[in-house]
Amino acid sequence: MTKPDPGVPPSCLPPEGGRFLFACRCLPILFLPLLLSGCGDWTPLVPGTPLGDKHFWVLTAGIQYTLLISLYAIVFGSIIGLAGAMMSRSRFKGVRRAVWFYVQGFRMVPLFVLLLWIYYALPIAINELPPEFGELPGMDMLRQMTPFTAVTIGLSLNAGAFLIEIFRAGMESVSKAQIDAGLAFGMSRTLLMRRIILPQAVRRMLPPMTSQFISIVKDSSLGGAIGVAEFTRRAILLQTQILHPMEIYTFLALEYIAVCVMLTLLARYLERRYPQHN
After folding, report:
1. Do the beta carbons of residue 197 and residue 174 sit within 8 Å?
2. What's the distance, CA 120 to chain centroid?
3. Beta bridge mates, 90
4. What is the spatial distance between Cα 72 and Cα 98, in angstroms, rounded to a whole number?
5. Which is it for the CA torsion 45, 47, 52, 53, positive or negative?
6. E strands in 111-155
């Protein structure tokens, strides 16, 4: 347990459980000097004037794409992560080796490069497949790739590689004695996973999963590079029109902070609702 700084009065320190909320309350103070010192011209972004209303809604309208991309990537990435973690515990060496190659491959390729390849190169590769493969279900969607689909696929594959390791570490944290006890009671491996391993593993995985989900939200900003009209893309386009970089990019940072704070608060609630020791 860390000791408080002797130079800081104890009454000024937030309680242990409230440090995160304390930081969230103090965070806007970092941006107050920009607003109060006359730094920049914020009138083009402040609602209440015709231009302010227009620009404000231009910046905030991208929330639907940011949230949808993040939600789909979290759901599909979690499915990939859970399936991959279970396959990594397979008795067959070939299955474990395939999961290892998947994890290492997608963790080594930069996400931006992956998005570019999926959006520009994957449709070309599918068009050059033999006809019997090109007619498989889903190939038409990949052949006519949209920016939104490309970002969702890329983020899901990338997040899945990291979530596999998170899920695997959580599963392996369950003691072998509990697993042996479940097998001794005649539980199947599926029932053992559902009743004993996953309930404990998910509680222990919540903090690293939250960090990964926040990374997904932030990485969704890369979708603007291939044409998705999310937060960052709209901010860049507006900046080229009205030339207020400090105000626009400060507002953009606050948008991402707001989304990530809500996600973190949800995770904190789940951690209190389902504690590890329960």
Report:
1. yes
2. 23
3. none
4. 24
5. positive
6. none
